Amino acid sequence: MGSGSSAAANSTAVGQNATASGTNSTAVGQGATASGQNSTAEGQGAIASGKNSKADGQAAAATGDNSTALGQGSTASGVNTTAVGQGSMASAPNSVAIGTGSVASAPNTVSFGSPGNERRLTNVAPGINGTDAANMNQLWGVQSTVNEVARRAYSGVAAATALTMIPEVDPGKTIAVGIGGGSYQGYSASAIGVSVRFSDNLKAKLGVGISGNGSTYGGGVSYQW
C-alpha cells in the first residue's frame, strides 16, 4: 500500500517504497524494509533483516536474528540483541543497550551508556542471590566490616610489638617486671609482662598487650642446657 511499495505473500507493506519481502513480515513507513522472516520495520528507512527482528523508528535497523531496535537510528546487529534509545547500538551476541547513545559491544552484557557517557543505575534493591547486583548500601556495609577488621588487626600488631619490647629477666636475677609500647599504622598499644627465672636452666614469661580494640595475652616456658 503506497507508491512503489511491495509485499510478499502473507506480508504487509505500507508507505512509499516500503518493502516487506520476508515471510510474514511487515514494513510501515517510507522506504521501510522488512526482509527477515517474521520481521517488522516501522518508520522511515527502518530495516528489519534479521529473522524475528523488529526495527521501530526512523532509520532504526534490526539486522541480527531475534533482534530489536527501538528509537531513531538505533541498531541491533548481533544475534539476540536489543537496542533501546536514539542512536543506541547492540552489536555483540545477547547484548542489550539501553538509553540514548548507549553501546553494548561485549557479549552477554547490558549497557546503560558508552565510554565517556556513563550513567548511574539508581533505585536498585539489595542483591540476594549470587548473581544479583549489589547496591552501594551493601558495598558500604562490606567496607565498614573490612575497616573494623583492619582496625583490630593493626591494634593486634601494635599490642604484639609492645609485648616484644619488654626485657627478660637478667642472669642472676629471679623476677623481672616490665612494660612496653608499640605502634603500627597509627594504632598504639602498651604491654606489661613478668619473667621468672626458676633456675639456671628454666625460666618462664607472661604478658598482656592492651590496645583500644582489645587485648592480647601470651606466655611461655623455656628450658636450656
In short:
By secondary structure, the chain is mainly β. The protein has one helix at 136-164; strands at residues 6-7, 12-14, 19-20, 26-28, 33-34, 40-42, 47-48, 54-56, 61-62, 68-70, 75-76, 82-84, 89-90, 96-98, 103-104, 110-111, 175-184, 187-197, 202-211, 214-223. The chain contains 1 helix and 20 strands.
Describe this structure in words.
InterPro entries: Adhesin_Head_dom (IPR008640), Coiled_stalk_dom (IPR008635), Pilin-like (IPR045584), Serralysin-like_metalloprot_C (IPR011049), YadA_C (IPR005594). Belongs to the autotransporter-2 (AT-2) (TC 1.B.40) family. Pfam families: YadA_anchor (PF03895), YadA_head (PF05658), YadA_stalk (PF05662). This is Adhesin. Residues 167-225 form the Trimeric autotransporter adhesin YadA-like C-terminal membrane anchor domain. This protein is mainly beta and 225 residues long. The chain is rod-shaped and about 115 Å long. The chain has an eight-stranded parallel β-sheet with strand order 1-3-5-7-9-11-13-15, with no helix packed on it. It has an eight-stranded parallel β-sheet with strand order 2-4-6-8-10-12-14-16, with no helix packed on it. It folds into two domains: 6-111, Alkaline Protease, subunit P, domain 1; 160-223, Pantoate--beta-alanine Ligase, Chain: A,domain 2 (2-Layer Sandwich), CATH 3.30.1300.30. The protein has one helix spanning 136-164, and strands at residues 6-7, 12-14, 19-20, 26-28, 33-34, 40-42, 47-48, 54-56, 61-62, 68-70, 75-76, 82-84, 89-90, 96-98, 103-104, 110-111, 175-184, 187-197, 202-211, 214-223. The model has no long low-confidence stretch (mean pLDDT 94). The longest helix has 29 residues, at 136-164. The N and C termini lie far apart (109 Å). It has one helix and 20 strands.
